[in-house]
Amino acid sequence: MYNFKGRFGFIIVHRGRNVPILSVLKAKHSLLHRSNKNYSNFSKHPKLLQGSKVIHVHRRGFGMFVARFLKGALKLRYLVLGGAVGGGMTLQNKYQAWKDSLPDMSWLDTYLPSTKTVDSFRESMISLTERVKDIEIDPKLMSVGETKWRDLQEWLNKRIDEAYEAAKQSEIESYQKLFLESFENIIKGASNQTQVKALSFGQERAQPHAPKENTADKRIDALQQELMDVQLRYQREIERLERDNKELKKQILLNKHSRSKNKQIKKSLIDMYSEVLDELSDYDSSYSIQDQLPRVVVVGDQSSGKTSVLEMIAQARIFPRGAGEMMTRAPVKVTLSEGPYHVAQFKDSDREFDLSKEEDLSKLRLEVELRMKRSLGRGKSVSNEVISMTVKGPGLQRMVLVDLPGIISTVTKEMAEDTREAIRRMTQIHMSNPNAIILCVQDGSVDAERSNVTDLVAGIDPSGKRTIFVLTKVDMAEESLADPQRINKILSGKLFPMKALGYFGVVTGRGRKEDAINDIKQYEENFFRTSKLFRDSMLSSTQLTTRNLSMAVSECFWKMVRETVEQQADAFKATRFNLETEWKNTFPRLRELDRDELFEKARSEILDEVINLSQVSVKEWDSLLLDKLWHKVSHHVLENIYLPAAQTCNSRSFNTTVDIRLKEWAESQLADKSIEAGSEALKTEFSHFIDKSMANKESDKLFDTLKRAVLEEALKRHSWEEKGNEVLRMLQLTALEDRCVNDKHQWDSAVKFLEKSLKERLELVQKQLSEMFGPGTWEKWVYWKSTTSDQKQRNMVKSELEKLLYSDFNHGPTLTPDEMTTIRKNIQRSSRIDISNDFIRDTWAPIYRNHFLNARLGKAYECRKAFYLYHQGLEELECNDVVLFWRMEQMLKVTATALRQQVMNREARRLDKIIKEVLEDYSQDQEKKISLLTGRRVTLAEELKRVRQIQDKLEEFIQALNKEK
Q1: What InterPro entries is this protein classified in (predicted)?
Q2: Among candidates 478, 475, 542, 473, which has minimal Cα distance to 504?
């Protein structure tokens, strides 16, 4: 609370709120003029004084004004007025700051209309309202709300998009309509002219003064010539319109391509259909399926011109050709479709060939020829493997054609013996498809009686419901035939026994390789324009030229496609259901993995086993390598080093012989033998992991054959790095040079090693003795065994030899001549049997070996406790055997350590790389995968996957086909 002394002697300070001085002064001033209000009015409002405190200052003459002053000061309207004034000023300052912070929007004046323009528009609208105020609006229209207006907008946007697509089609349709109208007018005009002239000709003949017969013939010839001219004019007009239409389509396709270059490219209908055919071909390459999709099969005799007909339809010379030589050696499937550019592309390649360039055409023909040669098997002249190709271009008729090798009558020496039968069998298989359109091509320049293909086609399609007959080389036929009317009979279907949907005559060139398609088309047009044969015949012009043929074949093709594609989809739907049912009943808990997916799964398991090699402990590697090393070198150490030295029975000679032979062996063979042992250890360990994996119950037994094949192939390819040989040799020589056994533990280890080696060798020798001398007394009585005559003789020799060894315990390894003579005489005296010296020597070798090894083993037992005597350097101690085997043991340990390091650091990774290479090779070899991954589980999954793919593509194609309708 604050006190303020002023002129009037007091001020009111409200608790929690400061009352402005200006408000107080104004309140006082107003109270001075309200003399009719007294203090009693103030007292009636005690709430106004709550929270306030009045401070009295005794001033003279002002007591009466206190109550009035307080009443005016506490009026709420003055408080509100003061707050409004302060708040308004603050708000104005804030607004001005916010306005200044806004960006400059003056640039909108360029795009927004001015105030003057808006006012003018408003005035015009007011004027318009005044004019139409008497017009009544239908209340139904007024009921259209925002929802209906929004629906209308969406509908309009959708229709605009559809209209844009329809506009392109309407351009083509309008052009086609113009073409048809022109055609009808030409035909009507020609017919009217012909009828008028024919009528006048009939009237002239009815008159009494009719001209002679030759005049009538001239008039008939003139009418025919005029009709032919009309047809030719019509033909030229059609070709002109067709050229314009082709250019128009090209521009439309280019325009569409430029607009959709950033969008996903949509496959054309014919491309989708071609993919379905490829899937069917891969599913059953023998074409043995009962229900197949349509295609146009081009058949004919060799050199009949079927390839030329196909090139005229494709508008490019895309096939290799030879003079009188069979060039088509495999079926070639050509998918024709529209496109902005005239290009060709193989199914399994991304490369495009520009058919407007002769260089690309030559490369394309060469590629077709190479693919045909690659498809041929050994000793075969033709192949059943289909070469798929796509040809696109503006104005091309959409269809799928299959060009087959020409039917031959004679097999030359350069061909396989079964070529003729193979071609006929291939042709029959392709034509046997009930939905295939047969394009039967007949050479018009040869006698009809020499035709092979017509009889073949008549046997496959006797009713002619899917056959189109094409007569080629009509120009040559017109020149060579003595009876030109035979051509009319052929094209009328009256000569050959076969039937057909239509008959066409074409000219596909003059037999020159350098002629382009346009030159051939021009030649064909000129021929039919000037040909007297067709001018005099009653054939329709629609039966002539390859253009009319192409249109007729395309129309027939799509008609058959629409009739059969849904049946094919239903057939595969049923097949899929049957296969899925079989899988659920046979393999209920397994995923449907095809051969490629199974191979990838097996690849992962095999590579995991290679990784497990790094988990083998150092102790395990050392133990395995020591066993492999001793197994490799034990025979050489015992037979070539130890036994020759020990049999000298002289300590100094023993050490000299051992040192010389050890050094020679270490420098020449030991390193190589050690590497062989290391390689075998690596293979053994890896094989152990593979066997363990296959023995696991959770392992898929389907992979066992593949794993075993990969293991064998990888180990066959693996070879140890040779650069470690020299380092290993130096380590071994250093280890073998050390002759000092340092402690008792090493001495005991060497003794055990010596004893173990001698016992192993003794076991082998005793087994040899058992085979040489036959069963003993125990075996004879218990197992009822007996000895042979040879064994009896050896037992007699054995008895004499044992007496010799008993008398001379340290006998040498060889028998003296006197000893040999004594043994022979003793045996002859006792049994009267003459024994040869060689027989005695053969018997002596194992007996002496057994005797000597037992003696050395006994010596080793004596050396067990001789370590301290050895350290004292006693020369009479004969424990050189222990020192030798200690040196061998140290060398084996050093070698095993070096090999282990090489295995873990280098060879395991190299083996991993080799295994990956083997797996990659197998993944590219389909025959290998088929042979290694077999069984109903694999074939059923493969078939089920393929049927699903075909069904999906068929359904996708049917949807696109229905949309096009």
Answers
A1: Dynamin, Dynamin_GTPase, Dynamin_N, G_DYNAMIN_dom, OPA1_C, P-loop_NTPase
A2: 542
- Using alpha carbons, list the distances in angstroms from residue 77 to 65, 72, 74, 207: 21, 10, 9, 130
Task: Using CB atoms within 10 Å of the CB of residue 8, give its burial: 0 to 12 exposed, 13 to 18 middle, 19+ buried.
Answer: middle
List the structure tokens of 480.
């060579």
Say if residues 77 and 26 touch (Cβ distance below 8 Å). Answer: no
Structure tokens at 21: 């001085």
- Which pLDDT score is estimated for 756? 92
Report how far residue 486's alpha carbon sits from residue 478's, in angstroms, rounded to the nearest whole number.
Answer: 10
Structure tokens at 567: 């049946």
pLDDT of residue 759: 92
Confidence of residue 893 (pLDDT cuts 50, 70, 90): very high
Give the span between the Cα atoms of 79 and 14, in whole angstroms: 12
Strands (E), 264-331: 296-300
Please provide residue 885's backbone torsions phi and psi, each rounded to the nearest 5 degrees. -75, -25
Is residue 801's pLDDT more than 50? yes
Report whether 74 contacts 82 (CB < 8 A): no
Rounded to a whole number of angstroms, the distance between the first and last alpha carbons of the chain is: 97
pLDDT digits (tens, 9 = 90+) for 185-238: 544 444 444 343 433 434 444 444 444 446 666 666 666 666 666 666 666 666
pTM, two decimals, is 0.51
Q: What is the DSSP letter of 510?
A: S
Minimal CA–CA distance to 68: which of 96, 104, 28, 99?
Answer: 28
Q: What would the two tokens of residue 526 be?
A: 């000129």
Whole-angstrom Cα distance, residue 123 to residue 60?
Answer: 74
- With a CB cutoff of 8 Å and minimum separation 6, the contacts of 489 are 495
> Strand 343-346 and strand 387-392: pairing?
antiparallel
Residue-level length of the chain: 965
Percent of the chain residues topping a pLDDT of 70? 68
Query: Helix, strand or coil for residue 669?
Result: helix
Q: Which residues pair with 300 in a beta bridge?
A: 441
* pLDDT tier for residue 589 given thresholds of 50, 70 and 90: confident
Is residue 439 within 8 A of residue 297, CB to CB? The reply is yes
**Nearest to residue 396, comparing CAs of 466, 332, 341?**
341
CA gap 806, 426 in Å, rounded: 90
CA–CA dist 441, 299 (Å, integer):
6
| pLDDT number for residue 126 | 61
Give the chain's radius of gyration (CA, Å). Answer: 56
Q: What is the pLDDT of residues 644-656, one digit of tens each?
A: 888 887 777 888 8
Residue 251: how many other CB atoms lie within 10 Å: 13
The per-residue b/e assignment along 335-365, b for 16 or more CB within 10 angstroms, e otherwise, is bbbbbbebbbbbeeeeeebbbeeeebbeebb
- pLDDT given at position 539: 67
Q: Where are the alpha helices (DSSP H) in 33-75?
A: 39-43, 65-73
- Residue 373 confidence class, pLDDT cut points 50, 70, 90: confident
Which is nearest to 910 in space by CA: 772, 677, 720, 732? 720
The Cα-based distances of 535 to 191, 228, 479, 844 in angstroms read 17, 6, 15, 116
Q: Within a 13 Å sphere around the CA of 833, how many CA atoms are in the beta-carbon half?
A: 17
| DSSP, res 333 | E
Q: What percent of the chain has pLDDT over 90?
A: 9
The token duo for 492 is 């009328």
Q: Say if residue 564's pLDDT is above 50.
A: yes
DSSP H stretches of helix in 641-670:
643-646, 651-665
Rounded CA separation 751/6 (Å): 128
Contact between 723 and 893 (Cβ < 8 Å) = no
Q: How far is CA 798 from CA 795, 804, 807, 848, in A?
A: 5, 10, 14, 10
DSSP letter at 640? I
Amino acid identity, residue 511? G
CB 847 within 8 A of CB 769: yes
